[in-house]
Amino acid sequence: MKSFKRFLLLTIVASLAVFAAACGNSNNGSSDGTSAEGGEELEGSVVIDGSGTVFPFMSVMAEKYMTEAQEGVSVEVSRAGTSAGFKKFLVEDGTDFNNASRQIKDEEKAQADELGMEVKEMKVALDGLTIVINKENDWAKELTEQEIIDIFLAEGNKKKWSDVRSDFPDEEIKTYGPNENHGTYEFFWENILEEKDLAEGTNLQQEYSTLVDLVSKDKNAIGFFGYGYYESNKDKLTAVKVDFGNGPVEPSLDTIAEDGEYANFTRPVFTYLNVGLAKEKPQVLDYAIYTMQNAQKVASETGFAPLTDEEIQKSVEELEGLK
To answer: What domain range includes position 64?
Structure first.
């Protein structure tokens, strides 16, 4: 009887040990089942705003984090636009992160300095500015880089499609794009149009979904936004193949690279971290580290070209150094 009782006691202890180990190894971490904080359960919130272009990437990232890593943390992602987002970020008690489809400007850096705020730039993926047309448009599927610039420039004076090429229809061109709140607009205006005036009557919108809808319903429309929005609306729009001088190039995850065939229209996209808040709130730093650890996977899932292993490793190490 004593032997049986001893056996029963050992069995119970062993079972409890197995149960505890199983609980300790539950999926409370990143995609490999370990959290950035080494398995610690966190609570609280993470507040993110900014770029509409980066929004799909960060929305998926937030969902993965809340279901795979830290169920006790609430991650809120909004999309006011890059510039509007920086206004919410660069204030006392501002957002934890600001997504951006352009780099922070000097005047925004100066604002941060005035506030005594340390800001960390986190490059998360690569995006390709994509020129889109209506599905019924069968004449402008391939355009040169200069033709695109002339269409969107006021001084290009391309008011009808026949002004671009004589064999194009004698119909008025309708130009569309995101408004000035968006980094995509700023990238296009600053880097491609070289800060010259847009064509008169260009229809600029706050919401990318509205742009998709407008172009999809206008046979003579041509617009621009990030590749991810085209990727998720291929059934409604056609992406223009752009000839940069060596033949037409279709935007894709393979061609969108800083030294790739689509390089002229390729840009990095970012999120910016308030370092002070990251040091005060463990969940904010944990989310930042998780984002970089999973950036390549989420980029590919949401229409972005992923960063290199070396870039990811460097960024993670820098974030780890903030602990």
So the answer is: 33-126+269-320
Report yes or no on whether pTM surpasses 0.90: no
**Is residue 177 over pLDDT 90?**
yes
Angle at 290 between CA 36 and CA 25, to 5 degrees: 45
Q: What are phi and psi of 71, to 5 degrees?
A: -70, -20
> Which CATH number characterizes residue 138's domain?
3.40.190.10
Strand pairing report for 73-77 and 44-50: parallel
Decide: 49 and 10 in contact? Cβ < 8 Å.
Answer: no
Query: At residue 59, does pLDDT exceed 70?
Result: yes
Q: Flag whether 164 is in a domain.
A: yes
Distance of CA 323 to the CA centre of its chain: 25
DSSP 8-state class, residue 202: -
| Structure confidence by residue, pLDDT tens digits, 287-318 | 999 999 999 999 999 999 999 999 999 999 99
Cα-flanking dihedrals φ and ψ of residue 99, to 5°? -75, 145
How far from chain centre, in Å, is Cα 186?
15
